[in-house]
Structure formats: C-alpha cells, structure tokens
Amino acid sequence: MKDIDAVLDLWKRAGAAPSVTDDGEGVRRRLKRDRQLFVLAWAGARLAGSLIGGWDGWRASMARLAVDPAYRRHGIAKRLVAAVEAQLRQMGAKRIGCIVLEGNEGGTAFWRAAGYWRDAQTRRYVKDLS
C-alpha cells in the first residue's frame, strides 16, 4: 500500500496513542490479511480518516479509528464504521469488538452513539514481544 506513510502521519495528527506496531512494517503486515477491512477516507489528496477491521472467521474487531482533527464532526468516522460493519456482516460476523483506550472520552462517546456498549464481562490483556 503506497499510503502507509500517510496512515502513520494521520495517526499522529489524530492523537492516536502510540503502539508498538505503529511502523511501516506493522501496517504492511496488517494489510496482508483482510485488506478490504483497512478503510481510508480522503479529503482530496489529504488522508482524513482510517479504520482497521479484523476478521478471523470467528471474531470481528475494529481498531485505530482515527480522524484528522480538521475533519472531525463531518461524519467521516460514522461512514468508516458503516463500511467496515457492512463488510464484516457480509463475511459472516455476528458481533464486533472495538478497542477504545481508557480515558478516551471522545472515543467512548462515539462508540456508544454508534450502538456499541462496554462489555463488562471481558478485559483485554496484552504482552509486547519486543
């Protein structure tokens, strides 16, 4: 994908919390699987939004919803989510999990307004392998 640098730049502009996979190689690896679920929104030549969906045949997920601050409140996030939801539904998904970092009030409000709820029965655990 020729737009990898633009994606990484968008995540910085949007204030997305840094992750150990925020590099060109990490994005390239992600694109090798479910490329159609890595959705971008453009405003002319400028990348305005991104969302990564995932599907392993059993679980569906969404992560890295990011919108350039200059383009927020224009429905970009809603359209990105609708596009990934439709694709996941077509692939057979029955439930979608979203990753929202603690303290991300804007993200929490967005996902609630989009019909998602916090699953009180689960907690995400991670381990960096680097």
Main sheet: which strands, in order across? 1-2-3-4
* Amount of beta strand: 15-25%
Mean pLDDT reading: 91
- Which range best describes the helical content: under 10%, 10-25%, 25-40%, 40-55%, 55-70% or over 70%? 25-40%
Largest sheet: 4 strands, mixed
* SSE pattern: HHEEEHEH
Instruction: Give the CA-based shape.
Output: globular
Number of helices, counting only DSSP H or I runs of 4 residues or more: 4
Contiguous low-pLDDT stretches (5 residues minimum) are: none
Structural class of the secondary elements?
alpha+beta
Give the C-alpha Rg: 14 Å
Report on this model:
With 130 residues, this protein is an alpha+beta fold. It contains four helices and four strands; from the N terminus they run H-H-E-E-E-H-E-H. A hairpin with a 2-residue loop joins strand 1 and strand 2. The chain is globular, with a radius of gyration of 14 Å. The model has no long low-confidence stretch (mean pLDDT 91).
